[in-house]
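Summary of Year 1 activities. Much of the first year was spent building the evaluation harness for sequence design. The harness presents a backbone, in tokenized form, and records the residue chosen at every position. We chose the following record to illustrate the format because it has been used consistently in internal testing since the harness was completed.
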């Protein structure tokens, strides 16, 4: 997703510029060795603070199931004390997305989707998942990845200066904006070595906390099973967490050797089942959403709609179900229905940003520019720092005939560093109005 890559690089670069001097070589807290780190721990926290809220919103926000959220946070916090970086500002969250995934930002913001929470079968497996994600934070994988990326970006920046307007590609339809910040787009992609290390650290942390190492075996086995059953369903997870069978076998081996003496530790299945009981009542609806999303990703919108309808029959007020249906309607050109479902999503989870974005796009497509502008303004207030919002504000102002204000937003968008089709359109508008010679 190139547009999001640009956005991510922009945000990271911005965070680093704002935080001042580069950090240079640092001691890796896990290995104790010197390593090229262009981000200081303060910058890791800053990058986390700027990016995590956008990913949480793309994943439909944190759960309203406060008991579940509290449970997951307390399991994570208890383990965090046993890590190599116990003082990081960890927070552990359940986000509403239905696909199977979990991830960590470099300052310690960690999230698991409802999809993966329904897959896990005991607290030791949850501990393994949280331990793995904390492993990435502790070994500073994002920091070292971003450091390498920034070095490369520094080289690429010299080339970018020569880029002219003619290199911009053709326009894409407005609907493309629906997926502008997609799942996983803001997250680091780890190497196989990073994944192995995160598994190793995860197992260490979970056993130290008192969970059976079988939790890690169980987690890895779920991923193998799901991959065998529906390979396409797990593309996002496996692009950031690959090589499931090798990892499962390693977990088995470690459980039998290094951690053999910990085999009597508990799995805490009952405690996990009690705390996820409410979530599990939604499983049939979430299954339908997952199936619908698979059709959406294949652009089979009519098939997707059938499953979203079933999901909404089972869980009529589900924010994700409503928003998925809204996007599905808009993708099929049903603007009025798309808008209606986006408005229902806004009611079901007031203040959550993504529904405002989708409602704004629906109104924009219907030519209701001032109503659209109001949605985008509210979005920016709820979740500042998304360049796409600036672009759509510009479009709404453009539609309203407010040329000066539209021009200001179009140039803000170009300054955000995006080089996508929207940037081309923004540039063309500015040129045709004489703002760019
Ligand atoms: Zn990982």
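For this record, the design step produced the sequence shown next.
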């Amino acid at each position: 997703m190139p547009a999001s890559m640009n956005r991510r690089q922009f945000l990271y670069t911005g965070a680093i510029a704002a935080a001042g001097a580069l950090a240079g070589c640092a001691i890796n807290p896990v290995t104790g060795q010197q390593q090229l780190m262009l981000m200081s721990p303060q910058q890791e926290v800053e990058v986390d603070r700027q990016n995590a809220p956008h990913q949480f919103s793309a994943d439909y926000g944190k759960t309203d199931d406060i008991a579940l959220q509290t449970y997951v946070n307390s399991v994570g916090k208890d383990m965090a004390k046993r890590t190599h970086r116990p003082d990081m500002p960890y927070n552990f969250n359940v986000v509403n997305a239905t696909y199977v995934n979990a991830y960590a930002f470099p300052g310690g913001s960690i999230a698991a989707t409802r999809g993966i929470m329904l897959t896990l079968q005991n607290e030791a497996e949850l501990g393994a998942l949280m331990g793995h994600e904390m492993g990435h934070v502790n070994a500073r994988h994002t920091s070292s990845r971003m450091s390498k990326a920034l070095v490369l970006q520094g080289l690429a920046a010299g080339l970018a200066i020569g880029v002219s307007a003619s290199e911009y590609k053709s326009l894409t339809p407005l609907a493309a904006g629906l997926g502008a910040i997609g799942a996983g787009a803001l997250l680091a992609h780890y190497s196989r070595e990073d994944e192995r290390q995160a598994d190793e650290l995860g197992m260490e942390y979970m056993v130290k906390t008192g969970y059976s190492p079988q939790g890690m075996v169980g987690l890895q086995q779920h991923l193998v099973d799901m991959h065998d059953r529906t390979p396409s369903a797990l593309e996002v997870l496996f692009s950031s967490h690959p090589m499931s069978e090798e990892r499962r076998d390693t977990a088995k081996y470690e459980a039998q050797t290094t951690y053999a003496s910990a085999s009597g530790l508990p799995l805490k299945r009952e405690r996990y089942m009690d705390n996820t009981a409410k979530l599990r009542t939604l499983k049939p609806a979430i299954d339908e959403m997952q199936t619908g999303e698979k059709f959406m990703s294949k652009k089979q919108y009519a098939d997707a709609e059938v499953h979203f309808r079933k999901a909404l029959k089972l869980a009529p007020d589900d924010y994700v179900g409503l928003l998925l249906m809204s996007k599905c309607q808009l993708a099929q050109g049903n603007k009025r229905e798309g808008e209606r479902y986006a408005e229902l999503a806004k009611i079901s989870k007031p203040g959550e940003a993504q529904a405002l974005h989708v409602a704004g796009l629906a109104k924009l497509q219907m030519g209701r520019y001032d109503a659209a502008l109001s949605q985008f303004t509210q979005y920016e207030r709820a979740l500042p720092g998304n360049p796409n919002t600036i672009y759509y504000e510009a479009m709404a102002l453009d539609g309203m005939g407010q040329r000066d204000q539209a021009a200001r937003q179009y140039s803000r968008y170009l300054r955000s560093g995006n080089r996508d089709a929207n940037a081309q359109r923004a540039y063309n508008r500015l040129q045709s109005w004489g703002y760019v010679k």
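The first strand starts at residue 25 and ends at 27. Quantitative recovery figures across the full test set are reported in Table 2.
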